[in-house]
Amino acid sequence: MDAIALLKDLVSIDSIFPNEQNIAKYVERKLTELDFKVKKIAITQGRYNIVGERGSEGRPILFYGHLDTVPAYGKWESNPHSLVENGDRLIGLGAFDMKSGVAAILKACETKTNRTIKVVFAVDEENISEGAHAIVKSGFLKDVDVGISTESPDPLGPKFGPQVVSLGRRGRCVIEIGVPGLSAHGANPELGKSAISDAARLVIELEKLNLQENLLLPKPTHFIRKIVGESTSLSIPDRVVIELDVHMVPPDTPQTVLEAVNQIIEKCYSDKKISSPNGVKITARLKQRKTPYGTPYVTDKDNTHVKRISEIIQGKYGKVHYNYGMSVADENIFAAAGVPMIVVGPSGANEHSANEWVSKKSYLELIEVLKAFIES
To answer: Residues near 353 by Cβ (< 8 Å), separated by ≥ 6?
Structure first.
């Protein structure tokens, strides 16, 4: 199928998570047509990843893409599920993030080769990566030599497209902090202790959180994503929940971030900025969710496959831009499982917002880069 027609098909299929079943059926059929042995890796009833394997020579190389999109945010100038061509821009929901990457993998895999190739099309990447964790647990990645993701990483990816080789991403976690207070009648606040007041003091200190840096990855960042607490009836508020969102880099992990937060809390007590009502202290923990948080990773620039794809890009475009992503993705999950991950994607913009688009030129160039990688 023509590359543009293929992308049109993919964009026309509504795959806003958690409704990826129709697009999963579509890519399953396409992989079967390309002689892949295809199977489903389920995460819930009727919701599953599609994986395929073909060839018998060498340790497998993996191609990865996610099938889900976010909702159609904002005011679109066209139907989000109908690909519109406007000059070099191909406009549609998921066109950039990342149905053009999925389509590029399918087109590249038309290349005839005996090299062992594995393909993973995952669900739930835009949520909590349930699909990626299920794939790791299945053992499908255990013998993979390298993984190639075709999701364009920020900050350089949207500008240079497949001239960019991304070799790492920051990790992410959310710390949930419970701040206790002491209820009392609002007419006599001195008899109680406001959890909101203590939470406000703590937030000021959390803004000073000092995270470790890495020479390669972007600097770590953090922000307060949630504060919940209120007075009911005419009472001093006795409970506040704070959520701290953190993007970390090696050597930090979610656990070391939690330890750093606890140190700030203890210092607030020792400096008498906060006191504990009735001996009950502030608590902090990793916010619970169904899947573990993605840890940061870096792939070695001297990796054989990094060198190989860099040579291909240099031969086609004259220069390679090395990049490290700002945000977490399924690649973090695969890298934590021991798979060296490389990201090469198209250029585009407006992901997670109205009028998302991918560059037609960069999409077609990405296909050629992936084909050359398979052939080499």
So the answer is: 73, 74
